[in-house]
Write a structure and sequence with these properties.
This protein is an alpha+beta fold and 68 residues long. The chain contains 4 helices and 3 strands.
């Protein structure tokens, strides 16, 4: 039951962590931190303590625009 609540909460979240983005892109977390910093004009992000959260909407929009 608790796992379902956690999954539902995650589905409602509006941000990605750097770790989540690094996994999606298949790059290291260190490379991803540099990438997020470099893309500050493309991604909306916020730093909370030592953590960085990136807007799902802004990241997904950028990803959709990339040619793959």
């Amino acid at each position: 039951m608790e796992a379902l609540a956690t999954q539902a909460k995650a589905a409602e979240m509006r941000t990605y962590t750097v770790k989540e983005i690094s996994q999606m892109l298949g790059i290291s977390e260190n490379a991803c931190y540099a990438f997020v910093k470099e893309m500050k004009d493309e991604f909306r992000s916020v730093r909370i303590g030592t953590s960085i959260r990136v807007s799902k909407k802004s990241f997904d929009r950028w990803l959709d625009e990339q040619e793959m």
